[in-house]
Amino acid sequence: MLGFLFISILVLFIFIIMATKYGLDFPFRNSTIGDYTRMTLSRDEEIRANLIHLLLTRKGSRYFLPDFGTRLYEYIFDLNDTITYNSIEDEIRESIKTYIPNLDINAIKITNPDTDPEDGASSVSEDEDARLFRIGDASTKPYTAKIRIDYTTNDGAFSTSDFVIINI
User: Is residue 64 one of the residues assigned to a domain?
Assistant: First the structure.
């Protein structure tokens, strides 16, 4: 009887561990634990994956959600001026307000790569941090802009803060 109870608790514990997956991680990668694709394991990872998925999806590429995504790809070869930076910021704020309403943007910092003071001495390692994304080829150093989005997620009583960096 004690063995049956132990096995039942063990099976229940395994199902609870398996149920802590939230959704698909973005960008898509192979799973190392037997799933088809890598899954997010925490609420923070899920929100970050949803944000990156929203920002890197071209507007108009979804059949039944033609307004989903942003037009960040259109700014790749634009001028490095405040008009372009304001357009990028407005595009990001509008898409997040529409599709991720529980995400509050604290700040959007858009910098020119030529005058970026953090370039070379950045606190974010480009090789290992999951919060850094690059639109285009990784060898393209002179990108148009470096966008850092600081955000807070509100879920009633709990709120967490994080950031994402996108190089376009």
Answer: yes
Domain that holds residue 70: 21-167
State pTM to two decimals: 0.69
Give the CATH number of the domain where residue 154 resides. Answer: 3.10.450.40
Q: Which residues contact 11 (CB under 8 A, 6 or more apart)?
A: none
User: Is position 7 within any domain?
Assistant: no
pLDDT (tens place) for every residue of the chain, 168 residues total:
666 666 777 666 565 555 555 666 666 666 666 566 767 777 777 888 888 889 988 998 888 989 999 998 888 878 788 888 899 999 999 999 999 888 889 999 988 877 665 544 344 444 445 556 655 555 555 566 788 899 988 776 677 788 888 877
Backbone dihedral region for residue 96 (phi beyond 0: left; psi -120 to 50: alpha; all else: beta) = alpha
Question: Is 51 a domain residue?
Answer: yes
